[in-house]
Amino acid sequence: MPSRSGPPLRPSCPWWSGQPCTNLEPGPPRGGGSLDETEFLSDHGLRALSKAHAEQPFTLDWNGTRFVVDYEPGESTSSVFGGNSNWRGPVWMPINYLLIESLYRFGSFYGDDTRFECPTGSGQYRTLPEIAEELARRLTRLFLRGADGRRAVLGANDRLQTDPAFRDHVPFHEYFHGDTGAGLGAGHQTGWSGLVALLLFPDLQARIRPPPYA
Q: Which residues make Cβ contacts (< 8 Å) with residue 157, sequence separation at least 6?
């Protein structure tokens, strides 16, 4: 690649936008709120809505009515948006998986010269594939036992967490609590939560990585 002097260049568009980054600005790359643990990035993957909206909800006043979208990490508190299905805070496996796959693809093009601070404020800069691997690690924490011997997906249910008859029968929930990782919604959603298998095993994970650009 051609060499240049001065501060490093960063794409002027966010890495998650999917838009072609044709303009470059001086300075380190920015991931925005996507990699911020006080916003989208949780211990168990990316939330569907920034946690910042817990204290700063989005409001719209229209024709005498106020509409509010706030951060709800668990099941929906309103039937307006489809009952317990909630896209305003929880972690959803299919969206996270698509983002991981896209990060690998963008990384195969941009290479190791493009790095983003991950998590935001940590001072640690990672390539796009490295960010994909970090997101994959966080998602697998939903199902794997932590240092305390508990699985996040089983939530606060002590019987499921400790009883030998239940603790190793892991359900594939529809979505997961944005703060705790507890499984929510349907408990048999293998159609998309089963994607975690591709993240748990390196030989399977390799299948979602595209060949590097020449």
A: none
Beta strands in the chain (DSSP E): 9-11, 24-26, 41-42, 45-46, 58-62, 65-69, 115-117, 125-127, 175-176, 183-184
Contacts of residue 56, Cβ cutoff 8 Å, sequence gap at least 6? none
Average pLDDT value for residue range 61-82? 84
Long-range contact set of residues 52-56: C-beta below 8 Å, sequence gap at least 24: 53/88
Q: Kindly state the DSSP code that residue 81 receives in the 8-state scheme.
A: G
Report pTM.
0.80
Give the count of beta carbons closer than 10 Å to the beta carbon of residue 191. 12
CA distance 19 to 15: 8
Residue 137, C-beta contacts closer than 8 angstroms, at least 6 positions apart: none
**Peptide bond before 119: cis, by omega within 30 degrees of 0?**
yes
Residue 202 has pLDDT above 80, yes or no: no
For 112-143, write each residue's pLDDT tens digit.
889 999 999 999 999 999 999 999 999 999 99
Greatest alpha-carbon pair distance for the chain in Å reads 63
The pair of three-digit structure tokens given for residue 159, joined into one six-digit string: 């019987």
How confident is the model at residue 22, as a pLDDT?
40
How many beta carbons lie within 10 A of that of residue 163, not counting itself?
Answer: 12
Q: Tell me how long the chain is.
A: 214
Alpha-carbon gap, residue 10 to 95, rounded angstroms: 25
